[in-house]
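Section 3.1: Structural characterization of target chains.
Under the original work plan, the team committed to producing a structural model for every single-chain target entering the pipeline before any wet-lab resources were allocated. The record below documents one such target. The sequence was received from the expression subgroup and is listed exactly as submitted; it comprises 512 residues.
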Amino acid sequence: MSGWEKSAVTLATFLPAAGAIVIALVPKSQDRLIRLLGILFTGAALAVGIAIVFGFDFGNHSGLQFVLNANWISTIHARFHVGVDGISLPLFELTFLLSFLCAVYTYKILPKPGRPKAFLALMLLLETGMAGTFIAFDLILFFVFWELVLVPMYFMIAVWGSANREYAAIKFFLYTLFGSVFMLLGFLALYFKSIPHTFDIIALQHQAATSPITKDLQVLIFAGLFLGFAIKVPMWPFHTWLPDAHTEAPTVGSVLLAGILLKMGAYGFIRVALPILPQAAKIWAPAIAILAVIAIVYASLACLAQKDLKRLIAFSSVGHMGFVMLGIATLTTIGINAAIYGMVAHGVITGLLFFEVGSIYDRYHTRQIAEIGGGMLQKVPKLAGIFAFTAIASLGLPGLAGFWGEVTALLSSYSPAQILAGHLTLFRVLMVFGGIGTILTAGYFLWMLQRVNMGTLPDRWRDDPAIVDVRPVEWIAWAPLLAGVLFLGLYPRIVFGTTSEAVSALVHIFGH
């Protein structure tokens, strides 16, 4: 293996952190330079990420690529073990794309009270934490990256958020920290029960196949991991921090929170909980599926009751991640492939929706649907058209990105893994309720569009010079996501073809 292959994922992951350090050393007065550095370092990380895609051997079914496995903390046998496979690659690349587009957006549009130096440094540090979570194959390293995202996001909400930002930031921090404590206890239990003791995820997967932990202990450890991952997803009933955090976060914070952070929890289930604790996964799967479908239906009903545009989009994320967790709970190749595709599609679509809601707020200075009053198609037709296109993609229209993840997750729940054969009726009932959730999703999105885009433009907005159509920087930041929504819908194989072999190897342990 060449030096490039060993260092590529590490370089891509830590370039943003290096950028945060550089920005911290630049004087505050150099406002334009700071914003350019944000674009430069996120762009450099994206460029390395793209090079990794071109260097990735999609025909290699043997496991990890671009591997670096070096001594780190020898006292506790923790190693700096990183790499990518078909499961992590799409989410790794999505992290760099959204972070770069956020930096581009921030070049012209920065949330109050300004302070681009602090804001961009935190955003770059957040990018390193998010990217690192998807390439870490040591549980301690995974935990370090997992926790790294907590502090930057806390300050982004607490300093640059809306009126109730302090409450939302503290709620986000406490919920996530609470889950992380139990997740860490689960990691320590895995370490002490492994022979020889190890935090290495690949080694723990092999041990699960050859000398598994007793079933009762697996169930207990899975409970700890479940709390950590489920809060981050977030699954119902651990979701209550999300609408507050999204509503109060600045636009860029909401984009990254919805686009990447929520995926870390679902990825944790796929990467750590299922393959290392397969017997517990079988026992927990029906409960996870039930909670997932409750989230789908509950979030749809909650969206119908929302008056705040941003809060509506936030609740929609709870429902969409419900489809992701339903796919994971089936323990099938189809279901887990659907989950990963759903995560990528949700990141692209909902990230774009939060960009658009942020721009609507910049113009109207309100997120209240009743105060906007309709008529956006008359006043800002391009912005209204893009908003309608993205909302229709989110409701799952065939041919756009939102369709394949939802329909495939529902398809997988009709025929879950053989080891779940005793719960076949349950999963098929859940499939029906999930299908009802898709109808409700279409209902709340179309009703939202009717109240915001359609109708007569209120007189108070008619001659307001601040309400302008899409700006050039918005076109630049949104164009790749608009193209992604269409491309993923028309050619879903770009994700399914990447993930299928790695997922097949993972679910082989369940015999399906």
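The two ends are 33 Å apart (CA to CA).
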